[in-house]
Amino acid sequence: MNGIKLKDQPASERPRERLAAYGADALSNAELLAILLRTGLKGTNVVEIGRQLIQKYVSLQALAQASIEDLKKVKGIGRDKAVTLAAAFALARKMAEEIRREPLLLDTPDAIAGLLREDARLRQVETFQVVLLNTRRRLIEITRISEGTLDTLLVHPREVFKPAISANAAAIVLTHNHPSGDPTPSEADIKVTRDLIRAGQLLKIDVLDHVILGRASQDRPKDYVSLRELGYWAGF
User: Fold this and answer.
1) DSSP letters along 44-66, please?
2) Which of 93, 97, 174 is nearest to 132 (CA)?
């Protein structure tokens, strides 16, 4: 489509008109980016610039992490377009934060994963967080406990349960991400989980689960694992 301007395309092929007619889900990532970018270089279809971005960064996650200076290195992306993209991804993150603040019912590992998935995708190091719940298993708040390297995470029961006690939480869910994409628990993950279950029993605060987030793959349809579902709560 190089050399064909959007205004010269049939209305049914223009991203804005297609979105209005069929909804955002009918558009490709490149077309959605084209709507944000608005116009391209002379003789360049703006959808092609969107395709170049997808080709360069492969995933929306990587694109969201790109700096304005990095975005400007893509042909057709100037300062204004780079700022527009950064603003769009920032709004998406803020919307996810708003959703997180609502009193959600979090009584399944799938619900926990849904709450934290977008945030976890942008993290490049392991981040251990605790989801604080009331007696009805609804969200009180999410507290970040620690950050580690890709394979090292330090967690102390005192730091985990201090915010739970302060918030008068009835239960907690342990969560962290594996930036490698494989959510399979390590021996350290299992040991930390068992130690915190025991500490919770002493404090009368239920540790309901430990959800590890990664990425789905062809062999692994879920992008998370639940240590409770894997049987690590047996015997407690």
Assistant:
1) --HHHHHHHHHHHHSSHHHHHH-
2) 174
In the sheet that holds 171-177, the strands lie side by side as 139-147, 127-133, 171-177, 206-213, 224-226
pLDDT of 98: 76
The DSSP secondary-structure symbol of 171 reads: E
- Report the alpha-carbon distance of residue 58 to residue 122 in Å, rounded: 14
pTM of the model: 0.60
CA 151/CA 188 separation, integer angstroms: 9
On whether the CB atoms of residues 93 and 122 are closer than 8 A, the answer is yes
Q: Are residues 108 and 217 in the same domain?
A: yes
Domain termination residue (choose one: 73, 97, 121): 97
1 within a domain of the structure (yes/no): no
Three-state SS at 18: helix
Band (pLDDT 50/70/90 cuts) for residue 3 is: very low
- SS3 annotation, 173-233: EEEEECCCCCCCCCHHHHHHHHHHHHHHHHHCCEEEEEEEECCCCCCCCCCEEECCCCCCC
Task: State the pairing for strand pair 171-177/206-213.
Answer: parallel
**Angle at which helices 79-101 and 29-37 cross, to 10°:** 120
Q: Record the tokens describing residue 94, joined without a space.
A: 């803020």
Amino acid in position 234: A
Give CA–CA dist 5/15, Å, rounded.
Answer: 12
Regarding whether 178 and 92 lie in a shared domain, the answer is: no
